[in-house]
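Quick one - first record:
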Amino acid sequence: MENILFIENQRFRQPWIWVVLIGILLLTLWGFIQQVVLGIPWGNNPGSDTVVILSTLIPISLIFLFGFMSLKTEVTNEEIRIAFFPFISRRYQWEDIEKAYIRRYKPLAEYGGWGIRFGPKGKAYNVSGNMGLQLVLKNGKRILIGTQLPDELGRVVNLIHPFVE
């Protein structure tokens, strides 16, 4: 029976994300109310009511998406599991990992931001911050898993495998 030694569940909670999303929603809601409800064309070159309705649904969808998105990391004696809900789920067996260590990284410079990212340094799964568990697989691939609990995650990984830097 496997024993989960570490678990972390992260969500997008940065205030700036929510300010931007809610700001866009308020703007599109104003256009929706003005044009679709009150019948007053919105803007100098107004789109159809369908365009206004769709442009209001987009920020609503993004708010729901960011509200439900999460990065779950689990460490067991056998593997590291990540799930970036609702998009992906991955498992990395310890036997396939050459190195694993906690490091500070630059999300924008190294990976182009947060989320599921691909860059010259490999893949990154992160939601905020600048600390992560760097995995170097035996096949040469590099995976970075963001964490808000770097000390705790580092201790657990170090206990399982002595190759941790």
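second record:
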Amino acid sequence: MYHLHVAMTFDATAEAVFDQIADHAVFLTGKGLVCQLVKEGSPDRNGRGAVREVKAGSMLFSEEILEFDRPRRFDYKIVSAMDNGKPTPLDHERGWLTFEQVGTQTRVDWHTRFRVKVPVLGWFAERFFIARTMKPKFLKLLEQARQRVEHSSASRS
């Protein structure tokens, strides 16, 4: 399994950051990226049991929220991944985001563990193709969320 980890610090409370990132349709949006909630979760619509579809280029991911502990963490699992309508050999163990309040700031750590189920080439694809393309995309999503939440916090001041 390949473990990808990115982190970012926000100038906002854990509650504000968590709410911004847990709103899947807002967080997972950008150039070539669209997310829609297929099934609402509990107790929050984006919470445990929620199912979201994420379209990224030719890829379509179906993800389920496994744990939802506002404002500390949420866990998700990619339950299916399709490329141009065909299943991919992606085995996603899980992904999780943690939110740690440190003074007036919040540190977000985003982890995901996966493997590509293709002998020999899977190892290469995990490390040199998927991880290298995913890491900057994860960081960009966090940066966009940081700008939204910090702008929102500044507007209220």
